[in-house]
Amino acid sequence: MVATTKAHYKLTNDMRVENFEQIKTENEKFVWTDKPNFLPFMASLIPVFIFAIIWGSFDFFFFIKPMLLGKEHSSSVDTFAIAFFGFHLIPVWIALISLFYQPLNHKKTFYALTDQRILIRSGVIGTDYKSYSLKSISDLNVNVGILDNANNTGTISFCTGHFDSNGKAEKGKLIGIQKPYEIFKLIQQTIN
123 in helix, strand or coil? Predict the structure, then answer.
């Protein structure tokens, strides 16, 4: 077990460290590890659902409902309309699939801070790892929303030091972590 900093964080669960054994380097030491809180982790889908509700409502009230209430039309028009709206409602389908995907992903999601990097483990079918070197991390931020405040959780975001094909800086996020301000300070101390 490793104890660190003034916050006295301990790796209280060896299973959490074992989640990262496959990618741990030889001399790497774990400083902190945790699992995201379920409610804030699920709440990260709220913007997706708001967009899907607006999109689906628009389709329903301006296209589907008038079409259903309108005069009879040929089966070729019905077939085209079903195919069109099947594709056009993709944002709604994505939101519905996320309802099942996100809880499954939560079960396999763990975060870790080592003396060298921040690690994120996730996945539904397989196991995925993201690794961010502490040397390349910048613009560390902590955000505590209303739901987070009620659960003593928050989200820490940071620039990873990588850029997408458009030159935009990639962001990493630790969503729904307990005691976010203390972990924020712990990450800053570990970076320095």
Answer: coil
Give the residue from 19, 40, 1, 3 showing the smallest Cα distance to 186: 3
Nearest to 33 by CA among 50, 58, 15: 15
Q: In the structure encoding, which two tokens stand for residue 71, read together?
A: 């005069």
Higher pLDDT, 125 or 43: 125
Residues 6+ apart with CB under 8 A from 180: 142, 143, 144, 148, 153, 154, 155, 156
Contacts of 116 (CB under 8 A, 6+ apart): 25, 28, 133, 134
Evaluate whether 157 touches 180 at the Cβ level (below 8 Å).
no
The token duo for 59 is 């389709």
| H or E, element range at 68 | helix 65-69
pTM, whole model, 2 decimals? 0.75
Q: Which of 24, 4, 15 is nearest to 119 (CA)?
A: 24
CA nearest 7: which of 31, 28, 30, 27? 31
Measured between its terminal Cα atoms, the distance across the chain in Å is 22
What's residue 5's pLDDT?
Answer: 43
* 53/59 Cα distance (integer angstroms): 10
